[in-house]
Amino acid sequence: MTEKSQALNTSIAAGLNYILSRQAEEGAWTEWTLPPGSSSTWTTAYVGYMLRNLPLKPAAIAARRIEKAVHWLTGHALPDCAWGYNEWVGSDADSTAYAILFLTSVDQSVPDTAYAALADWQCADGGMTTYLPMVEPHAWNISHPDVTPIVLQAMLTHSTPDQAALQRGIEFVLGQRSLGGLWNSFWWDSCLYATAANLSLMQTMGFKMTSCIALTQIKPANAFESALLISSLLSVQCDDFPVLINDLVDQLIKQQQPDGSWNTAPILRITRRDCYAPWIATDAGPLYAETHRLFTTATVLHALSQVHNAFRI
């Protein structure tokens, strides 16, 4: 084993140990301190899904703990058979999609009612909104370029996905791509979140995405962005990207904290309900950093696992 591969494997193992240390006895992961409170359902679904590509040895170590997370999540679906940020906010497309993706990634069956719920969030333009309008529609009820690809990925895990809905969703996704090849994020401060999610969808659909110059020009501001940039680069076919990926991996390994985590930053935006394009607004809404660094650490762990598997390190 080379020094490089040893460093990567050690980093993945330490990151996983941190993630597992933050898991509650009953199986849930809890994160964020937002106005609606903390989140266990969305967080458990997201973190669990980020662990899907672990190398063999870490995957074996995490297997029993992932089973506990699956059991907890399946038991905490809302009455409408979907999932939400937490039990008080109500269901949303993003949390439901991540729950489906996590559960199906470990071959856990998902009821048809959960897939049926996904269809309710599709808008007339083909994109997916995060929340259904309750009274007066606002910016939280329009198609969101960072939520749509996650929902479409979840729909693709169904044995008989709605092909018409998928086609409309793909058309929306392709229409949202900028001239530079990136996508904007509604709920996140970085365009890399939406870009990584959309490029992953394109890869799943079998679309061959060619070189994206804009990706090479981005300078990540934190570990979360570095991980998302790695995932984005791995979804695009370009001979020059391995060098950039290698540099990003080295940076992340150096930035890892003694406890195995990676430091967080204000990355999640609670977008104002009257702000329809937060990526161009000067005051789109407050930004929040994680309390326990779970989203950042899980996202980095996923990216490093992708590198390990892609280059057989």
Distinct helical segment count: 12
**Helix percentage:** 40-55%
- Determine the structural class based on helices, strands and strand pairing: mainly alpha
Bin the strand percentage: under 5%
- β-strand number: 4
Mean pLDDT: 94
Q: Major sheet: size, sense and barrel closure?
A: 2 strands, antiparallel
Kindly, what is the distance between the CA atoms of the first and last residues, rounded to a whole number of angstroms? 8 Å
Uncertain runs are: none
Shape: globular
**Alpha-carbon Rg, integer:** 18 Å
Strand order of the largest sheet: 1-2
Element order: H for helix, E for strand: HEEHHHHHHHHHHEEH
Question: Topology, pairings included?
Answer:
Elements (H helix, E strand, L loop, with lengths): L2 H19 L9 E4 L2 E3 L1 H10 L5 H19 L18 H13 L6 H9 L27 H8 L7 H14 L14 H15 L7 H4 L6 H12 L6 H15 L12 E2 L17 E2 L5 H17 L3
Helix pairs in contact: 1-12, 2-3, 2-4, 2-12, 4-5, 4-6, 6-7, 6-8, 8-10, 10-11, 10-12
